[in-house]
UniProtKB/TrEMBL annotation:
Originating organism: Lacibacterium aquatile
Domain of life: Bacteria
Signal peptide: none
DUF403 domain segment(s): 1-308
Pfam families in alphabetical order: Alpha-E
Name of the featured protein: Alpha-E domain-containing protein
InterPro entries: ATP-dep_Glu-Cys_Ligase-2, DUF403
Length: 311
């Protein structure tokens, strides 16, 4: 497979996942803001995606409606839903021969509908409906990607993109909650607002899973254990690295060689597989998550060096 083809497929996976993640976190943040009425949640959202500076330059007043528009429909923001779907659609248009009709039609229709919204924006009072629509559309696209594609190298590159992006997003959500939304005066592992933690679990579709696994009130250390160390939760860091490691093994078999990306993925997967939640809090959850994000980015760069750039 040409490196340009592999790159297009990888970025389809990353960008569709990014759009879905952004919509989910915007929905949770908007609900928390409606409940609390403060700006802390929106500062957390901006920090999660590292857009504080670019958002402030474009919207000096930094209102809630401005940030919602910036993260949803701003074509100049590389993290916005619009930009993510536009990029995924552009990549898919190039690779239509490697995709099914269903994948292309769902993705193209989603882009056309978003494009029509650029001028109109999101009417006040319809924010939740819009974000639910985005989540439904990305679920359709992901369902088509999962259920209609051959399990070949094209699928491996798509899934590498999905899980690199998902791991990054889960780590950033956890870090922004713990480091930014933690109420003033609270100690790590102490009493924190139940509603905020419930919303974080809800935005990664893990609230009912938490209750099923732990059958108890929501505690920060158990949320961390669920979203970092559980092997069987599709949003957890452990699950994501297991998938990345597996798809890289598949590619090693196809191409007959291994690279630095295989070593990095295997090492990080092993650490999560044998990790203990007590160790995370002993060393510092924030410190762990910052280091994980750095290492996950490095892994993504190595995958690009090994497979996505022309040699």
């Amino acid at each position: 497979m040409l490196s340009s083809t592999a790159a297009n497929l990888y970025w389809i996976g990353r960008n569709v996942e990014r759009a879905s993640n952004t919509a989910s976190l915007l929905k949770a943040t908007h609900r928390m803001w409606l409940m609390a009425g403060g700006a802390r949640e929106w500062r957390s959202m901006a920090a999660t995606y590292g857009v504080n500076e670019s958002f402030g330059k474009k919207f000096p007043n930094k209102s809630v409606s401005d940030l919602l528009s910036f993260m949803a429909l701003d074509g100049d923001n590389p993290s916005s839903i619009l930009t993510s779907i536009r990029s995924a659609r552009s990549n898919a248009r190039t690779e239509r021969n490697n995709l099914t009709v269903s994948v292309w039609e769902y993705l193209n229709d989603t882009w056309l509908a978003l494009r029509d919204r650029i001028g109109a924006g999101i009417p006040e009072g319809e924010e939740q409906e819009f974000l639910d629509w985005v989540r439904e559309r990305t679920s359709l696209i992901n369902g088509a990607l999962t259920n209609t594609l051959l399990r070949d190298e094209a699928y491996d590159f798509l899934q590498l993109g999905v899980h690199i992006e998902r791991a990054d997003n889960t780590a950033r959500i956890l870090d922004s909650k713990y480091h930014i939304l933690l109420p003033q005066g609270e100690t790590v592992g102490g009493h924190v607002d139940y509603y905020q933690w419930s919303e974080i679990l809800a935005c990664v579709n893990a609230l009912r899973t938490y209750r099923r696994v732990y059958s108890s009130a929501i505690f920060p250390w158990r949320v961390a254990e669920l979203l970092i160390l559980r092997e069987d939760l599709p949003r957890s860091l452990h699950f994501c690295l297991k998938q990345i490691d597996s798809h890289l093994v598949n590619l090693a078999g196809i191409y007959g060689s291994r690279h630095e990306s295989h070593r990095l993925a295997g090492k990080l997967h092993g650490e999560l597989r044998y990790g203990k939640v007590d160790d995370l809090f002993t060393t510092g959850l924030h410190e762990f998550l910052v280091e994980f994000i750095k290492r996950n980015n490095q892994l993504g760069q190595e995958i690009a060096e090994n497979y996505l750039f022309a040699g």
